[in-house]
Amino acid sequence: MNVTIVFWIAIAIAALFILWGVFLPENVESVLGVIDGFISTNFGWFYMLSMTGFVLFAIFMVFSPFGKVKLGKPDEKPQYSYFTWFSFLFTAGMGVGLVFFGVTEPLTDFHSPPKAEPGTNEAAAEALQYSMFHWGLHPWAVYAVVGLALAYFKFRHQAPLLMSSALSPILGDRTKGALGHAVDVLAVFGTIFGIATSLGLGASQITAGLSFSFEGIENNILTQAIVVLIITVAFVTSAATGVNKGIRYLSITNVIIALGLMVFILITGSTLQMFESFMSTAGNYFQNLPTMTFDMNTFTGDRDFLNDWTLFYWAWWIGWSAFVGSFIARVSRGRTIREFVIGVVSVPFIFSLIWFSILGVAGIELDQSLNGALYDLVVSQGDEVALFAFLENYPFAPVVLGITILLIASFFVTSADGGTFVLAMMSTGGNINPSVRIKIIWGVILSATALVLLFSGGLEALEMAMLIAAFPFTFVVILLAVSVIKSLSNEYDILTMERKQLEHEPEYLEQAQKELEEKREEFQEILPDEMPEPEEEDHQDQKE
């Protein structure tokens, strides 16, 4: 099967954790809760500072001379059209999350804002502002760091698409041993539990939607298990067809349906207020971005909102960055660094701003008209019912609810599909075209993990486990940023000398050529080793 030691170590760790959750679920929740609380209390500043650094890194890459460097050969064209590429970014990064939290988070923040008086206009503005803070520039900046590092070393210098390979300029030959394996296992570990958590959350939301739409279907653990099994067949089938078929077509379909749902709510809701909210939320976001970025509530002593929302999200995005970064690296060949960073950060940010301006405003407005009944329902029945309870009040509710369930299922499939692909890639030495057999194995493992934890009641413990795993991976992401800058600096000097050679006399060229060869040799020494055998890659330009 051409798997590496990373495959076996990751499976062993996942199996041990699952067994722990099956036989000692209360102990899992207790132990992980203590560790998670310790990290949030004592290292929250580290998460906040690191995420800020990732945003600054992304901004630097856009405006630096490195932005002209292409992720591939100098004359290579992008493999996918802009729309297909953006569809990949959106569905892999947070599509299912936006559907899940689009109504829930602004509504919850409206009733429990970080600073304003609950239930006021100020609370509504603050709720949308912080929703955008959690889903805006910061998550996509960390994805850009990981994705850029992997794409740069893979497509420009033919290195394996692995975290360890991208750290070679800093760690050298140590990436080939235990240290490199530990980095890759950590990336696989975060991906396994991140995707399994999404499977559990997605199953709970789909069953909630089915119980709202059809009488006789109960929102219980058995229904959730059936949903997981059905979705498993779907995403394993999609993964088996490869990136250019299953994942690609589903991603495009997801974006089209999501846009349709958004436009429907915009037209049937308070359209003018939503447009004004878009402008106000954008202004509040950028005006208060420095304060939100560095605010640790040091002098107020109230850290509930910070711990429950901001630090949770920062750890969540870092934990997810291994999966999302690897996937967007795989589909970004042929883009320049500037194009890559702008596309990865700005387009999803703008879409998220529009999404929350429409669904968030509509949810808060409906809750106010119902005297808080929508929020009370969410509190009593869970976050997964928010979207369906919200849509029940709109025209053509049965049809809209059915389409929404399909949208969630489709996002569900693409997230799991992308995760299966990335896991197979990371456990086969960075092969960007892993075998179908490996992808099916990982699909079964992901579903088994989700099912076991659903039946053992360990979904909350699983979330905490992923957040804890995100803490050491933060150091990996920081090193990836340093590695990229170090390598690009060396390569940029070489490219500059090559251009200058054309402008000088022959006697200078001999000396410059010698110096250039020395720099090239030094640069090659810090690069990761190439794959032992060339891979068969799809170079067809996808412009449909």
From TrEMBL:
InterPro entries hit by this protein: BCCT_CS (IPR018093), BCCT_transptr (IPR000060)
Spell out the family assignment given in the record's similarity comment.
Belongs to the BCCT transporter (TC 2.A.15) family.
Per UniProt, the ranges with Acidic residues bias are: 527-544
Query: NCBIfam families attached here?
Result: bcct (TIGR00842)
Q: What is this protein called?
A: BCCT family transporter
Q: Where in the cell is it found?
A: Cell membrane
Region (Disordered) location: 515-544
Q: Does the keyword Transmembrane apply?
A: yes
PROSITE patterns in UniProt = BCCT
